Amino acid sequence: MRYSQCPKKSITTQGFTLIELLVAISILAIVAVLGWRGLDSIVRSREVLTAELEQTRGLQLTFAQLQSDCTNNVNPANYPNLPEGLSSWIEPQRFILIRNVFPDAQAPAMQVVTYRLNDGNLTRFESISTRDLSMLKQLLQQARTPPDQQVEVIMQKNVQNIEFVAWPIGSGNANAVAATSNNVVAPSASSSLGASATSSNAATSGNQAVNNGIQNGVPTNTTTGLQVSLQLEKHDKNMRKIFILGGA
């Protein structure tokens, strides 16, 4: 008995054409590029946000330290033998003050603190503590002419400009005086905190500021307000904060 064989069906293999493969690859490439750009945007935004947070945190620490230093500013009325009879000086992009320090288990002492703008960085330097007025005078002189090897703490980086403005008590904003790069204030008995002005009536405002702080060469027991205006790089607006000197 013979069996007839059924004819075999031809099996044809179907697949993607070259054009379809090219289209699929192009779509995948576009999706990959879009995903990469989105990820890059997220990373860049994160970097910018991190930098802004670091600047904000640095400003908070800087202003907190300034607050502590200004609050403990020495009152010249309590120390008539202070160098030049003063306890704070404003210069272009620099602020110097004498502050009280209270070491543990030791008698109160004084130290010289300097804030200045140095190569785009706001730095702070504090001298050793002393109760000797002659030593304090030497420390003050060193603060005015700091050596190159002086170790300073960087309080804030990327600072474009800083300005210190002072209001003698009872003078109001109209008599606010400042030190800028165009108006150098040499620390002396006639240049107490805010001893010069930047407006056209600089002489009048400056003299009034000095008279409010010194009467016949004798320091008076007055409290002075200090405004710090700080501008960071890539920022159009200044950040300002006001402190009371000797508020403790």
TrEMBL record:
Residue spans of biased composition, Low complexity class: 188-207
Membrane topology term: Single-pass membrane protein
Subcellular location: Cell inner membrane
Source superkingdom: Bacteria
Annotated GO CC locations: plasma membrane
Residue intervals passing through the bilayer: 21-39
Protein name per the record: Prepilin-type N-terminal cleavage/methylation domain-containing protein
